[in-house]
Amino acid sequence: MASSPPIATVYVRNLEERVKPEALKEALMAVFSDYGEIIDIVAKTNLKAKGQAFIVFESPESALQAIEEVQGFDLFDKPMQLALAKTRSDATVSATGNKEEFELHQRRRLAEKDKRKAAEAAEEQKRLKRPGAVAPAAEARPSKTARGAATGLKATGGAAGANTVVPDEYLPPNKILFVQNLPDDYDIEALTGIFGRFEGFREVRLVPGRKGIAFIEYEAEAGAITAKENTAGMAVGDGNKFIKVTYQRQ
User: Fold this and answer.
1) pLDDT of residue 164
2) Is the dihedral of CA 32, 35, 41, 46 positive or negative?
3) Is the full-model pTM beyond 0.70?
4) Beta-carbon neighbour count of residue 25 at 10 Å?
5) Predicted pLDDT of residue 249
6) How far apart are CA 95 and CA 246, in angstroms?
7) What is the mean pLDDT of residues 159-187?
8) Which terminus of the chain has fewer CB atoms gathered within 10 Å of its CB, N or C?
9) Is the distance from CB of 27 to CB of 74 less than 8 angstroms?
């Protein structure tokens, strides 16, 4: 089996969260540019990922040298914590690969993100089912029962969190895929042409009376995972539709 391409991206954490992204990028460029050509700096701005950034070097050697020499360096009075990124960056793949390789890389990255979110959602559901567990921020807002008492309406369902619905994108893997946003004229043959090339393909099931959706079954989860990684977001038809591929809700 071919080995994975070397990583040329440095993952940086423990950055000062109050610094604006542009100022942070300028400071990171000043620190890391001594170690080689930088082709991109990605500074995270969403609340969950604040204080993190990715420095994309042109060469893996530059990334390794930067980690060795900058580890623990204070930036805005906080010591930076450095490591190699787990995967190649979009900028690296775009610069070194072709369009197909870049699109495949993006689909795989999004699939990995979906798997992580599915695992987090599953853990949260388990937590909510434990005796005495409460939904996040339950203390900050009235429960369904309390709101019902105030409005004269009756709450439906069981305990808080018992009926939590996991969004399609975060469902855990299984051997059946749910495909949406298909062109109306896509039939079993057209879908087999897309999904039948992945290991363990079993069948395509259309839904009578419903256009634009289908179920794709594989013999095992591994085949479904590979198919999802390689087809999620794929342009179909005239190229103006992008299919949504998730795991079947169980």
Assistant:
1) 52
2) negative
3) no
4) 17
5) 84
6) 30
7) 76
8) N
9) no
